[in-house]
Every structure is written in C-alpha cells, then in structure tokens.
C-alpha cells in the first residue's frame, strides 16, 4: 500500500460529475509533496561548513513571494542564502513539522495529534553525544501533551509526537520558549528548533505580524558574537497557502554562507539531510536518505 509520501501531488483534472472517489484523490493530493519538488537536479559535493550550531525558526502558512515582501524577511534574504525554489511537503501544517525532524510524514493524519514510534533527528544527535533542544512559546514544560495551551498548539511542536520523547528523559529537551533567552547567555545546544506561538508565527495574525516579531526577537542576536559564532540560522515556513504551489520562504543566515539567491529545488527533507550532514549524523533511513533528498550545496563559504 502506498503512503502519502509516495503519491505525486499533481491535482487530478475533475470530471463533469463530482464523486466520492474524486474527493479522496483530492484529499490525498493535499497531503503530498509538490510536483516541483520531484524535479530536483543532482546535488554537488557537500562541503561541510564551519557550523557548530543550527537554529531553525518556523513561521506559518504563507506563500514564499508574499513572505519575501516583508521588511525583515526581505533583509534576511538579501544578506543570507535565499532558497528561491524551496517547497513544503504537504498540507496542512503538522506533516511538515514531522517530516522536517523525522524524514517522513507516514502515520500523520493531517493536524490530528498522536504518537509515532520511529526515530527522529533528536535521536541521531543524542547518539553522537550532541545536544538538542526545542523551545515552544506558551508551552509550560513538564512533558505536557495537551493539544492547546494559550497560544501554543502541540501540532507545531514535532518532537512531542514521538514515543521515546513522550515516555523518556528526552522530553526534558522540549522547553518553554521563555528559556531561550537565558540559554543564549549560557550557551545554546548544537541543534535548536524555535516554535513561536500562533500569534508570533503568523498563524492567527498574518505574516506582517510574524515579520515584526521575528525582527524584535532575532535581529539583536545577529550582532551578538556569542550567538552567531558557528551558528547557522534557518528561517522557514511550515507550508504555503492551500491554493497554488507549496513554495515557501527559506533562508540560511550566518558567517558560513555566501549571500545570494539560489534557485535549486529543495524541500524540508533536504533541509533535514543538510543538518544531518553538517553534524555527521548519518540518516534516519527515511526520505532524508532517498535518492530524491540531497543536502543543500553551493551556499557555503
């Protein structure tokens, strides 16, 4: 049986009569990778950059072109490596978060939260004795598995969907967002995922608000030598709007990258593969290791 990961997302042409079968096909089409993402060219040799820390910030639900019009996102794109052909994996939100940290969206039923019994990026990092944390705004800590807490939603915190995190010591790696600033001073983990709440990520407020929040939160850090030394900052979106191609804004920023616009086709699986290569982790054996997934090249100094 095929999983949603293996079904092309080209939307079928509708017949003259609507039918339940067509409805099912359209539903499957909304949970798969974009057709454009299947047109990747072979990547070049990956030259490991001088990166000791990767910080990923995920914003919500906007087309790449619209995001690029926002003042701070535009500034980041002009001073970092902007990936102009970067695609999300699916609609709605949750499969993209899960795919980014586990290399697969198998077992993810839209935004319905649950438990996945498979390995994830945190496992690879821990096996290499590297550190990782995920900071979620409005999340109270304590391995709280509720679906909604103030402006936090669990579907945007992917690590809490994995069985070994829910039931083990790794749950302590998922932290309240308010601890991030303190940890910047003390020293951040090797891998950091920052999950804004639904006001700050633009989900409930729009991309203009998300852009202003991102500037207030991260612009001061870009001149902080302690934060930026060896740091690769990645700003991306979970998905685009539901209509049209699932192309999203993604930028890599830091001393390790050469600023510019890069038009090779990438997606969240490629970003995962890139993080794995930066830290020498190996892969999870999912779509991060498939022939279609490749590390991001050309951008490194």
Written overview of the protein:
The chain has 301 residues and is an alpha/beta fold. Helices cover 27% and strands 17% of the residues. The protein contains ten helices and ten strands. It has helices spanning 20-29, 64-68, 71-79, 94-102, 121-127, 163-167, 179-186, 207-218, 225-228, 268-279, and strands at residues 53-59, 81-87, 132-136, 148-149, 152-153, 174-176, 191-195, 231-237, 250-253, 260-267. It has an eight-stranded mixed β-sheet. A two-stranded antiparallel sheet has the order 4-5. α4 packs parallel to α10. The chain is globular and about 40 Å long. The N and C termini lie far apart (44 Å). The relative contact order is 0.23. Mean pLDDT is 89; it is low at 1-38.
Strand order in space, largest sheet? 6-3-7-1-8-9-2-10
- Overall, the morphology is globular
> What do the pLDDT scores average to?
89
The SS-based structural class is alpha/beta
Q: What are the low-pLDDT stretches, counting only 5+ consecutive residues below 50?
A: 1-38
Helicity level, as a percent range? 25-40%
Beta fraction of the residues? 15-25%
Radius of gyration: 18 Å
Distance between the termini: 44 Å
Number of helices: 10
Write the element-wise H/E pattern from the N-terminal end onward.
Answer: HEHHEHHEEEHEHEHHEEEH
Largest sheet: 8 strands, mixed
Give the strand tally.
10
């Amino acid at each position: 049986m095929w999983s949603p990961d293996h079904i092309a997302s080209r939307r079928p042409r509708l017949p003259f009569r609507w039918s339940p079968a067509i409805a099912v096909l359209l539903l499957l089409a909304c949970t798969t990778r974009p057709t454009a993402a299947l047109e990747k060219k072979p990547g070049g040799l990956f030259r490991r950059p001088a990166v000791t820390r990767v910080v990923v910030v995920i914003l919500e639900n906007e087309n790449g072109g619209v995001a690029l019009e926002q003042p701070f996102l535009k500034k980041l794109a002009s001073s970092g490596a902007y990936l102009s052909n970067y695609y999300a994996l699916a609609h709605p939100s949750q499969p993209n978060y899960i795919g980014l940290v586990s290399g697969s969206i198998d077992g993810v039923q839209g935004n319905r939260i649950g438990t996945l019994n498979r390995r994830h990026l945190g496992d690879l990092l821990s096996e290499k004795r590297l550190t990782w944390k995920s900071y979620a705004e409005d999340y109270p800590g304590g391995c709280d598995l509720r679906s909604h807490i103030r402006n936090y939603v669990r579907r945007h915190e992917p690590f809490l969907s994995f069985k070994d995190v829910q039931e083990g010591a790794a749950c302590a790696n998922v932290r309240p967002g308010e601890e991030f600033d303190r940890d910047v001073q003390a020293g951040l983990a090797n891998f950091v995922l920052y999950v804004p709440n639904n006001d700050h990520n633009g989900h409930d407020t729009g991309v203009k608000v998300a852009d202003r929040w991102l500037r207030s939160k991260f612009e001061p850090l870009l001149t902080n030598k302690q934060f930026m030394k060896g740091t690769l900052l990645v700003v991306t979106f979970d998905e685009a709007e539901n209509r049209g191609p699932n192309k999203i804004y993604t930028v890599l920023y830091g001393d390790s990258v050469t600023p510019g616009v890069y038009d090779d086709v990438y997606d969240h699986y490629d970003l995962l593969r890139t993080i794995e290569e930066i830290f020498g982790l190996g892969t999870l054996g999912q779509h991060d290791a498939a022939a279609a997934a490749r590390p991001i090249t050309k951008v490194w100094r």
